[in-house]
Amino acid sequence: MASVLACATANVPDGPAASGAGGATSTSSAGGGNVTSGAGGAVAHCPDEASLCGGACVDVTKNGLHCGECDNACVDTAQCVAGECQEVCGAATACGSAYVDVQVDPSHCGACDMPCPAPANSEPVCVKGECAWLCAGGKLDCNQWELDGCELDVSQSVAHCGACGKACPAIANGQPLCQSGECKPACNVGYDDCDKILANGCEANLKSDTKSCGACGKTCNSAAQELCIDGTCKVQPFSWNVLAQKDIVYAGHAFSLLKLAYNSATSVSANWCQEYTNLCTSFGYKPTGCGVQFTSMNNGYGVCATQYLSSLPDNSLGCNPSSSIAAAAQQNGFSDATPENSFGFHYCDSSTCTKTMCGTQYCSSALSYFHYGQPHGYTLCKK
C-alpha cells in the first residue's frame, strides 16, 4: 500500500522497548534477530528490520531520527528514504521505489501506476489528480473531438490560421495563404501586394501600374509620359495620353478603366480603331463595346470584332456602349464621365475608322463618342 509522506522531518516515534532490562551496551545477531546485551547481563531482541537505538527498536531505513544508523537524524525538510536522508517536498506518494506527487504526475495521476493518455499531437498532463492534455507542435484541437487529438496545424490552415476559427479572408487577384499562423496573400501572376495591406489583397497590377511596373515600387517617369506596358515603362506609343488606369469589375466583367486625353487629332496607327485596339492590348487586355449578338453580324458591327478584336460575351454594355462606360467610370470615382466623353467600339468600317479624329459632338460612330474637341474621356479594356 502506498504511504503518504509530508514535507517535514519524519520524527518517527521510537519502536517498542526491547525485551530485557537496562541500557544497551552491545549488539549482535543471533537466532534471526538483533540481539543486544543490557545491564546486569539482560539480553534484548529486535526484529530483523529494526535496530536498537536508545532502548527502542527502530527501522533505520525510514526513521528520520535514526536514518541508516542510530542518532543520524535528518535535518530540515529531509526525509529518510531507504536509509538515506532525502528532500521529498510536496504531498509525495511512494510508488514503487520513487516518491511522486499524484496530483501532478502524468505517469501516476490520482494514484500509482495510473498514466494519462496522450491523443495525437499532444502531451499528457495531470491537474489536481485528473488527466488532461496539451496540444503541441503548433497543432490545436479545433473540432473538440478527443479521438483525433490535436488534429489541425494552425500554422498553415487557411480556415484556422493561428487559432481555431480564425479564417483568412478572400484575396483580390490572389488566394489566401496561412504562413506561421498569419494570413498572407498568394498573388496571381502579374499582381503583387505592394502596400502590404491584407484587406485590398494583391492590389498592384504589375503589367500596367505606373507606380509598380514589373515590380513593387518601380515607378515610370510621368514627366517623360511613360506608361507601364506589359510590365515595362515605355514612352506612350499612342496619340492618347493615359491620365489614369484602374482595374474594376462592372456588369459582372473585369475591366481596366482608362482616363485618356488626345495628344493629337492624328492617330499614330493606321486609324483610330486600330489605335484603340493597340492601347488595350498593350495592357494585356482587349478592346470592348457591343455584345456578341452584334459583333457576330457580317457588317460593321462584326468588323469591330474580326478586325479590331472587340470582345464581350453579352450585351451588358449596350450598343452603343458609351452610357454604360460612363456609368462604370462614375461608379469608380470619375464623376465627370458622361456618355459624350466615354467610348467603346460601336460600328467599324472604312468610313468610321479614320486616321484623323473629328472634333464635334457625336461625330465618331466607331468610337462612340469621344472626339478630339474634348479635354479628356474614358474607356474600358476587357480582361
Helix content: under 10%
Helix/strand order, N-terminal first: EEEEEEEEEEEEEEEEEEEEEEHEHHHEEE
Main beta sheet strand tally, sense and closure = 6 strands, mixed
Kindly estimate the percentage of residues that lie in beta strands according to DSSP: 25-35%
The count of β-strands is 26
CA gyration radius, whole angstroms: 46 Å
Count of DSSP-assigned helices: 4
Please give the alpha-carbon distance between the first and last residues. Answer: 81 Å
Let me know the average pLDDT: 85
Question: Could you describe the 3D structure shown?
Answer:
The chain is rod-shaped and about 135 Å long. Strand 5 and strand 6 form a beta hairpin. The protein has 383 residues and is mainly β. Helix content is 8%, strand content 30%. Strands 21, 22, 23, 24, 25 and 26 form a 6-stranded mixed sheet that branches. A 3-stranded antiparallel sheet has the order 1-9-10, with no helix packed on it. A 3-stranded antiparallel sheet has the order 2-3-4, with no helix packed on it. The model is unreliable at 1-33 and 35-43 (pLDDT under 50). Among the domains are: 4-100, no CATH class; 236-382, no CATH class. The chain is built from 4 helices and 26 strands. The longest helix has 11 residues, at 272-282.
Topology:
Blueprint (H helix, E strand, L loop, with lengths): L3 E2 L18 E7 L2 E6 L4 E4 L4 E3 L2 E3 L19 E4 L2 E4 L4 E4 L2 E3 L21 E6 L2 E6 L3 E2 L11 E2 L20 E6 L2 E6 L3 E2 L11 E2 L20 E4 L2 E4 L4 E11 L2 E10 L9 H11 L3 E2 L4 H4 L4 H7 L15 H10 L10 E4 L21 E2 L8 E6 L1
Parallel strand pairs: 24-26
Antiparallel strand pairs: 1-9, 2-3, 3-4, 5-6, 7-8, 9-10, 11-12, 13-14, 15-16, 17-18, 19-20, 21-22, 22-26, 23-26, 24-25
